[in-house]
Write a structure and sequence with these properties.
Length: 224
């Protein structure tokens, strides 16, 4: 009856504890169900064999009881026929069968206990598998949501990093604007200095002198 001990251990195992230790809970769920269904097939075969033994023991016990009743009936009929010797033989056979009856009863009781135990384990295992099957999709759904949340968390982190980069870019742009403004202001100051004023005046009068010279030449030609 080693199988009884084995499947008692199977049904007392904590499936949730197995899932907690699993690196991939989704794969572990499927593996647990495969293992349990494999065990269920073994339990069915063993249960069928033990139930068959129970039925054989019950049939042997019932046949013995019927035979005892039959010997008793024939003994009565023999006495009614005034055949005491035949009645004695029937009673002797009845006594022999009765001595076997206790042993057959004990065999049936044991077979019945074993069969009941196996039926209980079979039914419990079927119930556990059905429960896990109904919970499987729920657990896988939770795992899928968890994975999605992990991806969202990573994306949120990436977006935060991008925002930091944009903020840094804006600061660099502001620094560039300040540098350009400073350079333009410096150029303006350089352009408006004393040397710049002299150059502008020289240019002004140089341009005017050329015009005056050309105007005088034009007048002289007209006077002719």
């Amino acid at each position: 009856m080693g199988i009884l001990t084995r499947f008692r251990d199977i049904m007392s195992s904590n499936i949730n504890a197995l899932l907690d230790k699993a690196e991939d809970p989704e794969k572990m769920i499927d593996q647990c169900l495969r293992n349990l269904n494999s065990d269920l097939n073994k339990v069915k075969a063993e249960t069928a064999a033990i139930m068959a033994e129970e039925q054989r023991a019950k049939r042997t016990l019932d046949e013995c009881k019927e035979e005892i009743t039959r010997m008793q009936s024939y003994a009565v009929k023999a006495l009614e026929a005034e055949n005491e010797e035949d009645a004695r033989k029937f009673l002797e056979q009845k006594a022999s069968l009765t001595s076997k009856l206790n042993g057959l009863q004990e065999s049936f009781n044991l077979a019945n206990t074993n069969a009941n135990h196996m039926r209980e384990m079979h039914d419990k295992l079927v119930s556990d598998i059905n429960e896990l099957e109904s919970r499987k999709e729920m657990i896988k759904g939770k795992l899928a949501v968890a994975k999605t949340q992990e991806r969202i968390n990573k994306m949120t982190s990436s977006v935060s990093s991008a925002n930091d980069s944009i903020a840094s870019f804006s600061r660099y742009e502001e620094m560039a604007d300040k540098a350009l403004d400073k350079a333009n202001a410096m150029a303006e100051l350089n352009h408006s200095g004393p040397d710049a004023s002299i150059k502008d005046l020289t240019k002004k009068y140089s341009e005017n002198a050329a015009v005056e010279d050309e105007l005088a030449a034009l007048k002289a030609s007209l006077n002719k």
